[in-house]
């Protein structure tokens, strides 16, 4: 529980330091009207809290904290280290980040810090210590909010201090230059290193960087940010062992291994901004919610930021449609959120985000946003009994940041697709009505019915055991193309890809055969091309699965079938008749391999086939179009994302939002939700 509030928290980033303190009266009255229960002050207040180096001014924050405590509003207090004040860069240029090209990034926006800077880290420690001393026992304090969105803007720095730290990091990782030279494969292109000092970050180079070098730089850069975070956590834990700690994540952010970060927080929290003009927005929200719940090992998470209406940073900033703010908030709760917070409480009147919506708009209570805010607060206030309950998912997707980094660092065979592949499979499961867990490569997966492993380029060494155990216990394991190419040390597996997964799947990958519709570059081939016009290339191929023709987009592999049934074959130039989908019985379960990149229809077909074979079904089979149905604990959330009233049959219980009884079916109005207490599955 965060603070003492026993329900689903509702709140926002709260930045009253942008106004005279007289705003507090009005803010607190409006918060009460909207049902706000928790706010996050001071995220970007470093310059106000420490106006000159070592000189602190807490007076304004004291007043804010006291007033919030008196109003019974819990505080998720930011440590305020997210954006150093101008004096920092001015007095200590070593704290500023430097780009790969050597440009120093100055103050004037935010997050201008070099993660490896000892000066910056010491300044953070000083501020966090002061914050903990001042507010660690304040009655309003319910949670610590460390930094803000690490790696949102600054992911790496190429300054001399980072360069030196990279060498130390490599020395710790490899122990010896011989081992580094082996892992990096420096016999290639005359890259052998004779001393640690010769090693540089992979800044601009004449041509392709060594993928192992790039991958280690990414690991190092992620670790540098992690150390900044861990330093603050250490201080806070010591000062206030009973106050939970969080830092807000950013969904599938490619730069940080959130599995590792999640181990260090007490509460996982996330920021999400789907585009209201994108019909797939609910899908994007579901993916992030599923990921956050999974990062917390199934525990509820905090939605730390979304917005009440429009953002200001897209080329076109669509406002939310009527009802959508409440609907998406319900969707987040359905998938495991126990707090719904926004950026930000009051819309700024100056600065870069003055046109980003707040819960209180420039037009105040007269804005169309205000009734949406009050309505959302009212709904959340009825959901107290949902707090703490769990979502039980029968499907899982294996997700690993190192894998995505390895794909991004590789020079071919695929151009960076690590995140997109997982998102595509999640989309398929979402549209079919599933809540999905994401799992680490080395997690115990034996409780799931369906485990999908999308393009596990690096990680097979760690995944092979858990996947085999899951199949043995009865799971259907589906591994897709592009998997098992690299060992954990980053070298290619000899003897056919899939490496240690080959035994489980009964196949090995012998050749990679990317496909495409014609040449990537140059003008189209016209009718006068006497020679070129007569050449046949490998364009997009299809997959023949028992007479069904599925599209295989941009990919094919030639596999050796050692011990599996071939379910489907490729059709197309140079792949005609080759196995495209294989299946092998393993213990109580099955292991499938897809050598093809199926499109959305093909993926849907495949999941439908698995459902038929093993009797898998979503929480609400055959839900009407536009209805997302998710079971959380004893409650079934029915969310209507469409513009038409939908009738959902086969539902009995009580609607928590209205208190109405439901017998056999319920109508759900457009862009709204019904939360049914069903009393268990
Ligand atoms: C987040 C950030 C907030 C605010 C918001 C705007 O990335 O944490 O401070 O800038 O975006 O959408």
Give the helix/strand class: alpha/beta
Give the overall shape, derived from the CA principal axes. Answer: globular
Structural domain count = 4
Tally of contiguous helical segments: 17
CATH level-four homologous superfamily name of the largest domain: Glycosidases
CATH class category name of the largest domain: Alpha Beta
Distance between the termini: 25 Å
Quaternary status: single chain
* CATH topology descriptor of the largest domain: TIM Barrel
The biggest beta sheet reads: 9 strands, parallel
Placed side by side, the strands forming the largest sheet appear as 5-4-3-2-1-9-8-7-6
| CATH-defined architecture of the largest domain | Alpha-Beta Barrel
Bound chemical compounds? beta-D-galactopyranose
List segments where confidence is low: pLDDT < 50 over at least 5 consecutive residues. Answer: none
Mean pLDDT metric: 96
> In percent terms, what proportion of residues is strand?
15-25%
Report the helical percentage. 25-40%
* Overall number of strands: 27
